[in-house]
Automatic annotation (TrEMBL):
Membrane topology classification: Single-pass membrane protein
Compartments in which it is found: Membrane
Signal peptide: none
Keywords: Membrane, Transmembrane, Transmembrane helix
Cellular component aspect of the GO annotation: cytoplasm; membrane
MF (Gene Ontology): glycosyltransferase activity
Protein species of origin: Gluconobacter oxydans NBRC 3293
Keyword Ribosomal protein: no
Protein name: Glycosyl transferase family 2
Pfam families: Glyco_tranf_2_4
Length: 634
């Protein structure tokens, strides 16, 4: 019969799921349980798999990922071996000879992750099972154990998995089929995906049984409907709006480490990989409180050949929702409302939604992930537009292209806010910050465009493919992106090019803009940080202000833009078209008014709280640049 246990690590800490990252870890009991957000994990043993345990959330389904391993899902199966005394066990990958190892928890968190790549067993690779008390064994756990035993007794095949769905044997245990994933070949997974795609009723049956799984409930149905519409009507316009619900936080947790979150997630990704695009390049971005720059950013990229924009936003308080609404209603962008739970980050949730739920993005051959202060720049003597560059790149196999960036230096606003509202950013600022001022790590960062069907998630700087599939990534000159020589002191990562290439194409990063805009930027939240509404002055510290001041003098600059200026006429023409959309001029006036009001509020707060006195003498100059005088009698 089935049995239920807690797993205790070598460090006398139970195994848990750390909720912010969905990873498996061990947490010292007691006070630490109140400071680290974790869910308890239970190990189930079943008669049909006597040398295995199945890890599940103790009270409800939770994402589980074993770091440094391809194991993930809402159930994780593990083999076990007895070591030393019968009470000590080592846990292995169910297919590979890789052991789990519990890193020792350290203060102050009392938490450390479980890693899954060890080749031998010593102390940290030993665990013990502690039986659950009778009152801890819920009906859900008993039902899950019964169904696991039935499933594995029949064998993991395409037919048994499809029959399980048809028999509606998943209700109440939506994580059940995740247990099969490590035993399922990619070929058989793709067979299941194909059969699901051919059977609408079967997909509906799956969705009914997994209402909380976004890939079963939304991803597969949306994809099938979209494919049907495209097959019927040919090229179709992308949807104007989507909603990424607040409770779908799992979209921001999974996929970032090549991990698959669920059986349905694996299936929808296999389906999406088969879609052939009919359109050119698009942009995927999170835009929060970017109203001042949004029209310029869109107009410029339309002028160089971007065909569509998938824009996610949340909690805008600068009136930019009105710009997004108008653009979506006019068929220029897909606007996705992306509400965020307090303390959660917007960016990865948005990327996870776009790359595993939204079907329309698959119709585009390439997708560039950008921020609102980043602009794709092309050498006009080599390429007339972005499509020309992509055709040149596509002469060899490639799934992703990593582009280096250059930081554009700040410039003053001669007429203050009037200059800001009147003159486009890309025409105000044209000089570059020296690489040595930015530093080697910052200068070697990349931003990536990729084939959207080939990936399941994206970091800010590079896409992430499922562990089941390989991808070919090149640098902007077509050479392989191998990330074998990271900057000193930085772990190897696809975020960094081995060397800077800025010959044909790259990203202009308007990070600094002007002193006034730096003040504005510093008071608002960014898409990669946990959601926080309202005025936020935490960035006004000496180091952050010093970042701006480090590039302000002329000797900190090197070189000037030669790529954007020749494209100015086309850009200004696009910008004028956008400004003349119905109601857009009034929307812009509202945004300008909001900017003025907020800027005045920021200045008042900075002076009232005497923020300049917390800065070093050199960095106090910044407050003179933004017209924040010393507090009287300070």
């Amino acid at each position: 019969m089935a049995a239920f246990y807690k797993i205790i690590t070598f460090h006398n800490a139970p195994i848990v799921s750390e909720e912010n990252h969905g990873e498996l870890g061990n947490l010292i009991p007691g006070e630490h349980e109140r400071t680290v957000l974790c869910s308890p994990v239970v190990a189930i043993t079943i008669p049909s798999m006597p040398s295995h345990v199945f890890l599940v959330g103790a009270t409800h389904p939770v994402p589980l990922r074993v770091p440094l391993s391809d194991l993930s899902g809402h159930i994780v199966p593990l083999r076990f071996e007895h070591h030393s005394e019968q009470s000590q066990l080592a846990f292995l990958h169910p297919v590979l000879d890789q052991y789990l190892s519990a890193i020792i928890p350290e203060e102050p968190s009392g938490y450390a992750r479980i890693e899954g790549n060890r080749r031998s067993v010593a102390g940290w690779e030993l665990f013990r099972l502690e039986p659950l008390a009778a009152n801890e064994i819920t009906q859900r756990l008993e039902l899950l154990a019964e169904r696991l035993d039935h499933l594995f007794a029949r064998g993991i095949t395409v037919n048994t998995l499809l029959e399980t769905i048809r028999a509606e044997a998943i209700f109440g245990t939506p994580e059940l089929l995740d247990a099969a994933l490590p035993f399922l070949s990619t070929l058989n997974l793709e067979k299941i995906a194909t059969l699901l795609q051919q059977d609408k009723a079967l997909c509906e049956t799956l969705a009914r049984q997994m209402p909380e799984d976004p890939w079963a409930a939304e991803g597969i149905p949306l994809l099938m409907h979209w494919i049907s519409q495209r097959d019927t009507h040919g090229k179709i316009t992308p949807a104007s709006r989507y909603e990424c619900p607040q409770n779908q936080t799992v979209l921001g947790v999974t996929g970032l480490h090549k991990d698959i979150a669920s059986f349905a997630h694996a299936c929808v990704h296999a389906m999406r990989r088969k879609v052939t695009p009919t359109r050119g390049p698009a942009i995927l971005a999170c835009v929060r409180n970017e109203g001042i720059y949004l029209l310029e950013w869109i107009a410029y990229h339309r002028a160089i050949g971007i065909e569509w924009f998938f824009l996610y936003s949340n909690d805008n308080d600068d009136q930019s929702d009105d710009i997004l609404r108008t653009l979506s209603e006019q068929g220029i962008i897909t606007w996705v409302n992306n509400p965020i739970k307090p303390g959660k980050a917007a960016q990865h949730k948005a990327y996870g939604h776009a790359l595993s739920i939204v079907p329309d993005i698959l119709d585009f051959s390439w997708v560039q992930v950008l921020d609102g202060d980043e602009f794709i720049a092309l050498d006009p003597q080599r390429f007339s537009n972005l499509q020309d560059y992509l055709l040149w790149t596509e002469t060899h196999p490639v799934d992703a292209i990593s582009l280096n960036w250059r930081f554009v230096a700040s410039e003053p606003l001669p007429e203050g806010e009037e200059t800001l509202f009147r003159d486009p950013l890309t025409m105000r600022n044209s000089r570059f910050v020296r690489h040595d001022v930015i530093g080697d790590p910052g200068s070697r960062l990349v931003k990536s465009m990729f084939r959207p069907a080939q990936v399941i998630q994206s970091q800010a700087h590079y896409p992430v493919a499922s562990y089941r599939y390989s991808t070919t990534i090149c640098l902007s000159d077509g050479t392989p992106h191998t990330w074998q020589s990271p900057p000193a002191g930085v772990p190897s990562s696809a975020a960094f090019a081995d060397h800077i290439i800025f010959e044909k194409i790259g990203i202009y990063h308007y990070f600094y803009k002007s002193p006034e805009e730096w003040m504005w930027k510093s008071s608002r939240n960014r898409g990669d940080n946990p959601s926080k509404q309202g005025l936020d002055l935490r960035n006004f510290v000496d180091g952050w202000t010093g970042n701006f001041m480090s590039q302000i003098s002329d000797d900190m600059r090197s070189g000037e833009d030669q790529w954007m200026a020749p494209r100015r006429a086309a850009f200004l023409s696009e910008l004028e078209k956008l400004k003349n959309l119905p109601g857009m001029m009034q929307v812009l006036q509202n945004i300008y008014m909001t900017y003025r009001e907020r800027s005045a509020l920021i200045r008042n707060r900075l002076q009232a709280e005497n923020i300049r006195e917390r800065h070093s003498e050199n960095n106090r100059i910044f407050f003179d640049l933004i017209n924040v005088p010393e507090q009287p009698n300070s």
